[in-house]
Amino acid sequence: MKQFLILLLIIFTSCDSKVKKETIVIEENSRTDYLPYYNDESFTPNWLTPNSDAERDFHKIPEFSLINQLGDTITQSTFKGKIYVTDFFFATCPGICPKMTGNMAKIQEAFKDDDEVLLLSHSVTPTIDTVAVLKKYATDYNVKDNKWHLVTGDKNEIYNLGREQYFVENDLGESKDINDFLHTENFLLIDKQKHIRGIYNGLNRASIAQLITDIKTLKHEGK
To answer: What is the largest CA-CA distance in the chain?
Structure first.
């Protein structure tokens, strides 16, 4: 059984420097042959056997259709047979987003020559973050096209994906709708079968290091 290191971190969770306390679970290192699975906002680990009936019936990220910084349509087909890391940001954010993007860039660098690993960043202000805006943002942060997709699209679809499918806002018991701004520092690790396999603090260096380790573990899962 894996051991977990629980860190109580005080983190910035919005661009207006509003501070809250959050418990972040960081795996010390990989001590089993596979990672846990997650299916709700509590992020309680489920230890399933890969390729089992339980795994095949477990929560998966559904189909979607969004537009990236090149103006290309991005769907689940884009990630067929891929592991990917996803987050939610907006281009005009002066607070946590630049640091999150910088940490996502570290993941890009770690797997720059690995076609098996992709990155996906969703804009939470899609009416403002047009393709042209995302393209400039990509240039500013040295985003590698077709490796790291910055996407815009329908706001309802993006917010539903974030809250109801990726569970990135893990404010348990707090009901939110489309009028409530979606803003989170969480990164999610998604496997080739579209299961959530990890959640990480996108502002924390140790958490990013663990994410990189977990991607490597996931790459060898079942081999």
So the answer is: 47
pTM score, two decimals? 0.84
Q: Is 87:188 a contact under the CB 8 Å cutoff?
A: yes
d(Cα 21, Cα 56) in Å, to the nearest integer? 35
The CATH code for residues 4-219 is 3.40.30.10
Ranges of each domain in the chain: 4-219
Mean pLDDT in residue range 11-33: 41
pLDDT in tens, 33-66: 789 999 999 999 999 998 899 999 999 999 999 9
- Residue 85 CB burial class (10 angstroms; 0-12, 13-18, ≥19): buried
Report the distance separating Cα 184 and Cα 157, nearest Å.
Answer: 17
Torsion of CA 107, 111, 116, 117, to 10 degrees: 10
pLDDT digits (tens, 9 = 90+) for 143-165: 999 999 999 999 999 999 999 99
In 3-state terms, what secondary structure has residue 209? helix
